[in-house]
Amino acid sequence: MLAFTRVTKRGLMMERIVIVGSGHLAQALWEGWDRSRIESFVSIVARSVNHRHLWQSPIWEQRVTFDPAAVGEADVIVLAVKPKDLDETWYAIAPYVRPRSLIISPVAGWSLSRIRSLGVNNPLVRIMPNVCAAVGASTTLACFSDVSAPDVSLVMSLFSMLGTVTVVKESVMDPYTALLGSGPAYIFLLLEALIASGEQLGADYGRTRQLVSEMVEGAARLARDRSNDPLSEWISKVASPGGTTEALLDILRQGGWPSMIQDAVVKASERAQQLGKAR
Tag placement on the chain: N or C end, fewer CB within 10 Å? Predict the structure, then answer.
């Protein structure tokens, strides 16, 4: 059995946390909490060795177990598994879960009511972080079911360590899963294309990756901090008539890029809804 210790950090009582699952999201959550120095209160219950390569050897050896009974020591259980695996995972750990353990599900498409249908009677949180949690920059959404005020505060504190947290109605979770949970992949695809273009023009990969990443970060900050300004105005400010930006935008618009992105997000949202209905 893994050993846990409760201590106080930043004035908060740190709870014993078990992440069930060892894939990319589980690893991102671990990294983010590691940056916040609460990793000593976090352990992982893996379902297989398929994601062994994601983890540094000391962490895998010291913090990962395959024993579902490890959740019996947890105050907080995070179900970081694939949608198709959630029911099987819950049935495996359910005999060991304490009645008041807080259950947190970041599983795409699984509504609170559907999770309840598995026999989950614990305080329950549906949450949607993203892989940017690894660097403390996740945009996380949360909604709650039968959760006490102290536990709500605990969830907000834990996930604020990983970025921002916004409480929303569950009805918007699937659309925002497409926008925010899947969203980093859209940005990575854009970054990949920009970097490849730089290489094609003779620029160094490493420097181009750093500079393009900083440029995207700057544009995102401007969009956030100047939220009263229409983004179309900023596009116009960058795109001088007959200039380089206008030439770039003409190609993107001819290719249907804006509507293509909208279609992609809608498709991702529809897929989240399908995952929620699948059996």
Answer: C
